Amino acid sequence: MNNILLLLSFMCCSLSVAVAQDLLTVRDAVGIALENNYAIRLTQNVQRAAKENNTYGNAGLLPTVTGNLTQNNSVQNSNQIQNNGEERSLDNARNNSLNYGVNIGWTVFDGFGMFARMERLRELEKQGELEMKRAVLTTIGDVITMYYTILEQQNMLSALDSSIHISNERLRTAQNRFSIGKAAKLEVLNVQVNLNEDVSARLRQAETVKNLKTSLNSLLARELDIDFMVDTLVNIDGALVYTDLLDKANQFNPDLQLIVLNKRLAELDLKNVKAGRYPVVRLNTGYNFSRSESSLGFVAQSNSRGFNYGVTASVNIFDGFNQRRNERIAKIQIDNASLLIEQQRLLVHTNLKTAYETYLTNLELVKLEEKNEDIARQNLTITLAKYTIGSISSVEFRDAQENFIAAISRFNTAQLQAKLSEIQLKELIGQIDF
């Protein structure tokens, strides 16, 4: 009886004890991923670039100021015949000219295209923020999914450790019974085979856990060999309501938000194209200095300086119907964006509906498999007691042992699938908590 209690105690504890010094919580894992993950960092840079581009100057609302300097020098052999018949010639005649100054140009009207471009830059910055949000949600979902997958496989590994411990005890009992003549050698051999099967399964399971930890470390963008334990507590939110999820998905789903924003960008592109029908008015001014020297000519040296100013206006009269073509294409892009919105909304609703049905099913399976695990545990306890006193065969005990391991596996799988369904739903509504 003491052996039975010891075995059951080990079997229960091995499924729940974690090494505190190497514990990695799901919050810690998400925090590390948000800081290190390459996909997030790349998206951050894209978002920062969109923010930098959102300026009045980039939209064309501000004037441009340029400084210019030009100097030309020449040495020539010149020969001139003037109107009065006088001939003048000079070898190595030098001619120099110098021009420099500051010029300002400012487009004051371009058919409101500059305002459309300014608004487009603002929308592109919002697009960068939404892309960033989507990358964060995807990464968090991947990290949490991997984390709880490791937990499922780690629990299975602990169950196999318990099974090996029980099989060792079975082998010791079978050997004792064989030594006193109450069991055949065949029983000892069968138990040894069962033990070897458990050890083999344990090796494969340990490899699975190790590979999953490597994958999580890769998601966290840290050293792949870092070992850790996961928190054994699985909190499943069982209070999700479909109508609430649907409302939030329509408002906050990042893919849907991005497509709605793309329609807005298409509308702004149409405004920018329509600006081509209007004249472009540009103001010009500047201050320039000019000096020239000539060894042969009527003017040996001249200097000038001062302001210049003016206005330039241009209008597109005919461009081969390209203006009309571009406007039609822009309108088609708006129609496509509207269709994509409806398509994406239907896809989100479909995914949400199927994910919610799966979520409800998995919640019921968690309750059922938890009961089955408890029944299998009680059955193993009774079977172990009977086997110890020799009232049942090792084959019957092995069946109870395998049923217990299978029940643990199904319960772990049910918990994982319920948690993954919860994560999928929250990712669809753009709001993952952990």
Automatic annotation (TrEMBL):
Residues 72-84 have a biased composition (Low complexity). It comes from the Bacteria. Keywords: Cell outer membrane, Membrane, Signal, Transmembrane, Transmembrane beta strand, Transport. Residues 72-92 are annotated as: Disordered. Pfam families: OEP. Coiled coil: none annotated. It is found in: Cell outer membrane. InterPro entries: OMP_efflux (IPR003423), TolC-like (IPR051906). Residues 1-20 form the signal peptide. Belongs to the outer membrane factor (OMF) (TC 1.B.17) family. This is TolC family protein.
